[in-house]
Amino acid sequence: QVQLVESGGGLVQPGGSLRLSCAASGTIFSIGAMGWYRQAPGKQRELVATITNGANTNYAASMKGRFTISRDKVTVYLQMNSLQPEDTAVYYCNVFQLGRLYWGQGTQVTVSS
User: Fold this and answer.
1) How confident is the model at residue 30 (pLDDT cuts 50, 70, 90)?
2) What is the bridge-based pairing of β-strands 10-12 and 107-111?
3) Which of 102, 78, 77, 93 is nearest to 27 (CA)?
């Protein structure tokens, strides 16, 4: 089993920045792709960004240029700049290991003045 713990969420004003972290622990052999998704109230969960273990990245169109995903062996990060109220959501990380997908519990990001 792999456990994921997210941190770094909170309340930020429009135009501000936050950095999310997601640390994996437990039975870790070789983590593959890692990613961030988000879910706003009343909406479906959507892709934010993913990163492979070769550091290839993929971003949702609306986040490209504002968000940056990065990683090390067991932690994935999401640097979020120029945040807007529409970025308000619960942000979830996930990781692939040995063909299985693991999810974190989510961290709330609220963008409001």
Assistant:
1) confident
2) parallel
3) 102
